TrEMBL record:
UniProt GO MF annotations: siderophore uptake transmembrane transporter activity; signaling receptor activity
GO cellular component entries: cell outer membrane
Native species: Halotalea alkalilenta
Protein localization: Cell outer membrane
Pfam families, sorted: Plug (PF07715), TonB_dep_Rec_b-barrel (PF00593)
Topology in the lipid bilayer: Multi-pass membrane protein
Name of the protein described by the UniProt record: TonB-dependent receptor
């Protein structure tokens, strides 16, 4: 039997002796990565080790887009995994910070925790925790902080089989830190430029003598004055988890996560009246000094798993989430005139969201034609609800000097909209999406080196949207919508596999058009093919991919604050990706990638311009080396480059390409105490990371900044 470390491969020992784990019996391998025979009784990858335990920049498997862990080579789509060590080396605290330096991802910059994250031209509008989704939106500030998570798994391209409501760009899955069988803990503190401060405590271990009950608690606080004036940003996170062994094969896991943001909003600088970018100091704030944004999210998670004697694996899990946000701010509403004045626009809103995701699945390896295959069957339920109250004033103030915009008088923008004050638009919308789904997938190996993957999903939808102010509303329902999936993986040798896949997305939308009717559901397809490599016993992974996506009916918000949403035309996106990530040696880690993207609007829409903000070429590189012995013993050094080609906005604002360099140095004072220094934008490159309209969302990248950290673990 010739297989790599897929979910169907069981335990093996390096010395070649027969190994037993989770009821599995495996004969000795003939080489470092292949097995000769397999007896199917269990599956070690259903309980893959966390990255904080395996260390380094690589894991051999992922769970995103699947229901049980699968080797990266066995998933016929593009997958990246950012491990705990990579997160700490690069000093990431929020998902959008991480995404800025992750191959294949694009961030439309805003305050940390409020940025929009894209892949293949599409925004990630939800994120999963251990496979359970909830909405994510920059306007709600629900981009998560990372202290509670062991690793981040990123799938590019749709995954309509297990999550038909996902965006075309893919899925982000955050894998929780789990309670550990042994007592451990860590304390981290950092301080840097603009009074950047970070404190984290992480305590884990058994709660009873037998170790059958284990707990973990992670608390963190982030605070920064920001490099822009009047742009304080504070974030807090609390995570608590319990894992309880009900018996040797059954585990109950409970968790609670609360995160919050308190931000003095920055919306970028203005252009001139012709849309030309201006050369302001990077600390210039084009907003009122009373700008404010607060948000809070709460997640309750429960999971029950059971390992069956026949090697099957069952899981029932649920996640209930609440999100709320309040914001009130004034920002540039026009270009800067020849007399150095500007119109000021105002926006105020209150958002409340509730979501519930429940999933039950069963996975089973089986023998057929002398090879090991696997099937997954399951059902899920999702309900997303949102109440969104919004008020905007296109000309909150007129002819305000650039120097005086910070000092404009306070206005309760939402309150004025509620009260019908002239010059304000006001909307009050309630929407909900409810979905039931049945899904099944089979991975069948007719011959040793070929895996054929097929799956299908039948979903039932119920969508409601109601605009209270205008008295307009609409509903949509579908009792049996089918979503298909197909893929193939062919092993060329012990290290390389060719793959191809086809995936669909059907996504009901809750946006109302100008006539008060629901915009038609999204429909999309992706074709992807490529080659994957796995080296150093799965510690180093490489991928080269080609993809093409077709999409129609994507909702596009108008640039006019007074206008309603509309459906975009049909879009075709195609491109190529190269990625290498993992550990070249035990001391040397690397994350590198290149993305090329080409977009064609096949049926034009005047509002459909988000793809202009996607550079055709992006490059990400990060590498780190830890010295052992010699003069540099106990030192680690790292560095990286983030680069993008030119891009434009829908209003014709052109931003040149840029490249920035980041570095880090660390020293292990003792096996338990580590000091680290991160320097970002080493050469202090001044560049625009995002462009938008004449008045707003023209965002400078951060100037050179330094952060010193100290971490004690036991």
């Amino acid at each position: 039997m010739v297989m790599h470390a897929s979910p169907l491969v069981l335990a093996q020992q390096a010395d070649g002796d027969t190994a037993e784990q989770s009821g599995a019996v495996v004969a000795s391998p003939q080489n470092g990565s292949r097995l000769d025979t397999i007896t199917v009784q269990g599956n070690r990858l259903y309980h893959m080790a966390p990255s904080e335990q395996t260390k380094g920049y690589a894991v051999d498997s992922a769970t995103v887009g699947t229901k049980t862990p699968a080797a990266l080579r066995d998933i016929p789509q593009s997958i990246s995994v950012v491990t705990r060590e990579a997160i700490e080396d690069q000093n990431f605290h929020t998902l959008d910070e991480m995404a800025r330096r992750t191959p294949g991802m694009r961030v439309l910059n805003n305050d940390n925790g409020r940025s929009s994250i894209y892949s293949r031209g599409y925004e990630y509008d939800e994120y999963s925790i251990d496979g359970l989704p909830a909405p994510m939106a920059s306007i709600v500030g629900s981009v998560p902080q990372l202290g509670a998570f062991d690793r981040v798994e990123v799938m590019r391209g749709p995954s309509g089989l297990f999550n038909s409501t996902s965006e075309m760009g893919g899925i982000v899955n955050l894998v929780r830190k789990r309670p550990t069988p042994d007592f451990q803990g860590s304390f981290t503190g950092s301080y840097g430029s603009w009074n950047q401060r970070y404190l984290e405590s992480d305590i884990s271990g058994p709660l009873n003598a037998s170790g059958s009950v284990r707990g973990r608690m992670v608390i963190s606080n982030t605070d920064s004055d920001g490099f822009v004036d009047n742009n304080d940003n504070e974030a807090n996170s609390f995570y608590g988890a319990l894992d309880i062994d009900l018996d040797e094969a059954t585990e109950l896991s409970l968790a609670f996560l609360r995160q919050s943001y308190d931000i003095d909003v920055n919306n970028g600088v203005a252009t001139d009246t012709s849309g030309n970018l201006l050369d302001y100091s990077r600390n210039t704030a084009f907003g009122a000094d009373w700008n404010a944004f607060q948000s809070q999210s709460n997640d309750w998670i429960a999971e029950l798993t059971h390992q069956f004697d026949n090697g099957g694996y069952g899981r029932v899990a649920a996640r209930y989430s609440t999100r709320n946000a309040d914001f009130n701010y004034a920002y540039g509403g026009s270009g800067v005139s020849a007399s150095d004045t500007i119109t000021v626009t105002g926006l105020g809103a209150k958002v409340d969201e509730r979501s519930l995701a429940i999933d039950a699945s069963y996975s089973q390896p089986f023998e057929a034609l002398g090879n090991v295959s696997e099937f997954v069957v399951g059902t899920d339920y999702k309900r997303f609800e949102q109440d969104y109250e919004r008020s905007a004033a296109r000309a909150l103030y007129s002819n305000v000097s650039v120097d005086g915009i910070n000092d404009v008088a306070y206005v309760d923008i939402l309150g004025n909209g509620r009260n019908g004050v002239s010059g304000y638009t006001y909307t009050n919308t309630r929407s909900s999406v409810e979905e039931y789904g049945l899904y099944s997938k089979i991975t069948f190996r007719p011959i040793q080196r070929l895996a054929l993957i097929a799956g299908g999903r039948v979903s039932s939808y119920d969508v409601h949207a109601y605009e209270r102010t205008l008295g307009q509303g609409d509903t949509y329902g579908d009792d049996a919508k089918f979503t298909g999936y197909a893929g193939a993986v062919l092993d060329l040798d012990d290290h390389h596999s060719l793959y191809a896949s086809y995936s669909q997305v059907f996504k009901p939308q809750t946006d109302l058009d100008a006539s008060g009717r629901l915009v038609e559901p999204r429909e999309g397809d992706q074709y992807e093919t490529g080659i994957k490599g796995s080296y150093m016993n799965g510690r180093l992974n490489a991928r080269a991919s080609l993809f093409r996506l077709y999409d129609s009916n994507r909702v596009v918000a108008s640039a006019d604050v007074d206008d309603r949403n509309a459906a975009a035309g049909e879009t075709r996106i195609q491109g190529a990706e190269l990625e290498v990530s993992g550990d070249i040696t035990a001391q040397w880690g690397v994350i590198a990638g290149y993305t090329y993207m080409d977009t064609e609007i096949k049926q034009a829409s005047s509002s459909d311009a988000i793809f202009l903000l996607m550079p055709k070429n992006t490059v990400n590189l990060w590498t780190q080396y830890a010295f052992q012995g010699g003069m540099l013993d106990k030192f680690s050094f790292g560095g990286g480059v983030t680069a993008a080609s030119s891009f434009s906005s829908s209003q014709g604002i052109d931003a040149p390409g840029y490249a920035t360099v980041d570095t880090m140095a660390a020293y292990d004072f003792t096996p338990n105490l580590r000091g680290q220094l991160n320097v970002n934008n080493v050469f202090d490159r001044k560049y625009y990371e995002r462009v938008g309209s004449f008045g707003t969302f023209n965002m400078y990248g951060a100037p050179r900044n330094v952060v010193a950290s100290l971490r004690y673990q036991f």
